[in-house]
Amino acid sequence: MENVFACCAGLDIHQKSVEACVRRLEPAGPLHQQTRHWGTMTRDLRAMADWMAAQGVTHVAMESTGVYRKPIYNILESRFTVLLVNAQHLKQVPGRKSDVRDCQWNRPTAATRTAEGQLRPAARATRVA
């Protein structure tokens, strides 16, 4: 698989934690990969976004299942291109047995565009009387 994005991240999201893996390909060729564990409180998510931005991340891939992704998506969408990945495609990959491996797998899907991003439903318009 050819890398399309020089710096991207993959997230594995749970109710009380997020595993984030950032992979950065330097122009000279060396590859740097770093994984960190984050909480799901707003301050933790903002700190994670700051960390990813400082690393130079442009694209973030995360599974599209469950409600736990919603606040994370809302915080990240203004700073990064967020790809919501179909969890059924990821779960069929053999050998992935840990949260760290999950976030490391989500990251290359962003790097190589093997992830098909899903559209976020438009916010409903409300009528004010």
In total, how many beta strands? 5
Major sheet strand order: 3-2-1-4-5
N- to C-terminal distance: 54 Å
Determine the structural class based on helices, strands and strand pairing: alpha/beta
What form results from the Cα inertia axes? globular
Largest sheet: 5 strands, mixed
Mean pLDDT: 75
| N to C succession of SSEs | EEEHEHEHH
| Unreliable stretches | 107-129
Rg of Cα set: 15 Å
What portion of the residues fall into strands of 2 or more residues? 25-35%
How many helices? The count is 4
Please bin the fraction of helical residues: 25-40%
Gist of the model:
The protein is α/β, with parallel strands linked by helices and 129 residues long.
Task: Give me the secondary-structure topology.
Elements: E1 7-13, E2 18-25, E3 31-38, H1 42-55, E4 59-63, H2 69-76, E5 81-85, H3 87-91, H4 99-112
Parallel strand pairs: 1-4, 4-5
Antiparallel strand pairs: 1-2, 2-3
Helix pairs in contact: 1-2
